[in-house]
Amino acid sequence: MHSILKTSVAAGATIAALSGPAFADLSGDLKIFSDMSNPAPRAVIEGMVERFGELHPDLNIELTVIDREAYKTQIRNFLTADAPDVANWYAANRMGPYVEAGLFEDISDLWAEPEIAEALASTKGAMTIDGAQWGVPYTYYQWGVYYREDIFAELGLSAPSTWEEELANCQVIVDSGRACYTIGSKFLWTAGGWFDYLNMRTNGFDFHMQLAQGEVAWTDDRVRATFANWRQLIDMGGFIADHQTYSWQEALPFMVNGEATAYLMGNFSVPHFREGGLTDDQLGFYQFPTIDASIAPAEDAPTDTFHIPANASNKEAAREFLRFVVSAENQTLINNGENLGQLPVNAASGVDDDEFLNAGFDMLSNNATGGVAQFFDRDFPAEMAAAGMEGLQEFMVFPDNLDDILERLEQTRQSVYE
Amino acid sequence: MFPTPLEKTSRTWQITYQGLLPVAVILWLLPLLAVAIFSVKPAADFAGGEYWNWPSEFAGFENYMRVFTDSPMPRYVLNSFMITIPTVIGAVALSCMTGFALGVYKFRFNLAVFFLFIAGNFVPFQILMVPVRDLTIDMGLYNTKTGLVLFHIAFQTGFCTLFMRNFIRALPVELIEAARVEGIAEWRIFWYIVLPLMKPAIAALSVLIFTFIWNDFFWAVVLTQGPSAQPVTAGITSFNAQFGVAYHMLSAGSIIAALPPVAMFFLMQRHFIAGLTLGAVK
Amino acid sequence: MANASLDYQKDNWLHRNRMIITPWLFLLPGIIFFVIYVVYPIAESFRVSFYKWDGLGVPEYVGLKNYSDLFKDRAFEISLINNFKWLILYLLAIPAGLLISLFLNQNVRGIRLYKSLFFFPFVISQVVVGLVFSWFYLPNGGLLNEVLAVFGMGKINVLGDPKLATYGIIAAGLWPQTAYCMILYLTGLNSVDPEQIEAARLDGAKGSRMLWHVIIPQLKPATFIAFVVTIIGALRSFDLISIMTNGGPFGSTRVLSFYMFEKALSEYGFRMGYGAAIAVVLFLIMLCFIGYFLWSMYQDEKGR
User: Fold this and answer.
1) The whole model's pTM is what?
2) Cα–Cα dist B213/C191, whole Å
3) The predicted structure's pLDDT at residue A126
4) Nearest-CA neighbor of A3 among B91, B278, B75?
5) Which of C57, C250, C267 sits opposite A73 (nearest CB)?
6) d(CA A238, CA B94)
């Protein structure tokens, strides 16, 4: 979704005078492209722009919010042809193509500033390619299983911690005429989340990363073991039917209406559950269950970021905006339960006292000893991820096609990493 | 007349036919009627999963107002007009000239040039995508309405030339030759004699091109992004993302996107059909 | 004096050649536009198809590698097959349009309105048609399944089933295309020679025999145009696929025009050379038809 919000001189002046001009005076235009198009993130980016504008009344900020799915295909276009000064994107391998193409500005200088270096140390690795930093994170969030506590209680179930419990639970749920999980795989990435977890639980974090880096064949028996576990859930009718037709939002009502009891998702889904009418008493969260007890649990925790395009015209103001974005105060605010409902990256920020944020923060701090991955389409190179997720979606609908799918993916692997 | 005129058929068939007509229309437009009904239903009707019940109350006004106030739809609609109208003017102007040249004069390569235009018009336009996109970027026109307009004018010129040239061919040659004998300059012949005769063709072509360009989606996606330049066809996909599963809003948005060409069609129906079928009835 | 005579000569030269110069002057703006935006890009696409290029850096010449890769690419194969499905099934719009036009070719009250209403789908953007049909096909709550339920049939998920999805999209495309053909035939029927019909009636021809032997031959020009626009429409199909399935499920609804867009401009794409190679293949398929169209038009021109 797009909107344009122009913050002009207006009332900003007085507020700026009160808060004191902490930074050098900035002027000119600052053009921001954002993919924060769902209602909550949208309010957050608009709020940030407004507050930043109040600090810099002479700066004319133009914000363009683009639909999150459409943004993914448009970014390359506008980075080359019509570059803004600040743009949203994602960490790790996902920014690789743009870094290699010279489309993102090297902002190692920002990362050398002590406030940023200390406060953001935990994500420096995810922002680093070739020894330089190419963006700043503003939020990250846990993935895990969101479930209907009330239906679990009704069926006499409790949150599972092992795969056996998971399968036993699911059988009870299926017998009650529901699906265990809702999922909308039309845009493919949701299936990537399932693969991440199953593979990291079956084979461990290191193996998962080797696969992402193209060091393991897709036809490897260990990969097959992951799919075999997945297939147990598919064969028992664990997933809703026709998921390949729905987007992840279109799959939400199944859980809200109780036709499915759980959703493997990122924490950004919580506001959607609440908006759909689920109370916090009805909604619960648990970490994806263990499959092999000898394997340390690893988690997906994607980091969302801001970047300065190499072709930006007002890089000074853009850097100032990035400093503003990563400040402890801003990150505390934008990530609280009333806004994004996610986790701040700045170590000095406070995590909002929210059931799901606490659970996620606790899980990632204490129970992700295996490692923290970004996400399927951020850890795997773009072309591999595209082919991979298409194969995963096909597997979920036609598990019998597995051999064929794996052979195709193996073919892709051999051409992508050559 | 074929089939046999109704007056000459049996009484039963006459009555059956009269009854069949509205049924056929309703079946034919069923998907569209569904959307029209969706667009006036209140949100609550969808929450209960009762998609196909009659609207519990008329919420059309709220829905359509929200499209205009809560989304950049008005901007997209405006963009569509700002892309479509200059294109119509440009393509019609260029093709009046090319049509005149190819229809009136006998010169070497006349047929070759004519066929070049036709062949270009038949091309699957995806083959132009990569180079046209690069060209537009190089000219600094990426994500501008001008960039889209220039391309549309160029591409539509192929079809328009075919149309105009055939139309001019059917005009009486004697008029032009008489004027030449009088010693009237060629451009005056074009301006004062041929152009006035072309009015019906211009009207037909304008309506037709308006619809084609308004409905373009592919080039809008390739050459523009965001509400500053995108037309409503591309905007509606973003609109969909904003309203997710709110079918009443999506339907209202779709109807707004479809309305201008539909209005154009009903107002200028005669020209429209003349335009489409000029080639078919020689 | 010298000047004046020179002017006179120039004037004279211009005047003498005005029948050659004038048309070219009138053609000039159109040709410039057309060469820049259509002719040159076609040549450029051919050139790019021999390079490996991400749209940014320096293109690397790879010869025919893009083409040889294409023939190992399963997604390309599926796209090509789907293109042929489109080509063949889209032609159904022609007989369907003829049938509807025969049905509507009467003089009764309000028939003009009925004709316009039937033509309606063609005026609407394919984007809207795509949206409308994807709601129509929704596995839960879609009108199609509601209708099937009335006939006691089970639910189907048209756009989620790789075996059905392409046909579902083609059906959506046939809707406006049939309307288009219908209009062409309605106009064609108007100009059918009434005397020939009367003569045939006297010979005892009726119904389908009359249609086949007398009417359809006279509708040949309309059929030709319908054929041309339907073939072009089938090969250009992009909007509906993009809106209804985005190429899915698992790539089963791709056609060449969509696949080339995906390879060249989508998030995971930016293989410009590869995309251009796909476009060239599509162009070559179209070229068979363009050749045929131009040839028939040429025959027509010669006949004048």
Assistant:
1) 0.87
2) 30
3) 86
4) B75
5) C267
6) 62
**Secondary-structure percent of chain A, ordered helix, strand, coil, rounded to 5:** 50, 15, 35
Strands (E), B110-232: none
Interchain proximity B238–A82, CB inside 8 Å: no
Confidence (pLDDT) at B282: 39
pLDDT > 70 in chain A, percent:
94
Contact C33 B157 (CB under 8 A): yes
Residues of A with CB under 8 A from a CB of C: 72-73, 75-77, 80, 97, 101-103, 186-188, 241-242, 244-245, 382-383, 385-386, 390-391, 393-394, 397, 408
Residue A103's contacts (CB-CB under 8 Å, 6 or more residues apart) are: A76, A79, A80, A309, A310, A311, C56
Token code pair at residue B270: 């005669």
Closest CA of chain C from A44, distance in Å = 25
In this complex, do B127 and C283 lie within 8 Å of one another by their Cβ atoms?
yes
Residues contacting A19, CB < 8 A, separation 6+: A54, A55
- What is the per-residue pLDDT across B74-112, written as a single tens digit (0 to 9) for each? 999 999 999 999 999 999 999 999 999 999 998 889 999
Question: How far apart, in whole angstroms, are the C-alpha atoms of residue B81 and residue B53?
Answer: 36
Output the pLDDT for position C152. Answer: 87
Backbone angles phi, psi at B142, to 5 degrees: -65, 140
Distance CA B186, CA B190 (A): 6
Which residue, chain included where needed, has tokens 């504008």? A53
State the average pLDDT over residues A40-53: 92
CB atoms within 10 A of CB B209: 25
Query: Rounded to an integer, what distance in angstroms lies between the CA atom of residue A134 and that of residue A98?
Result: 10
CB B276 within 8 A of CB B208: yes
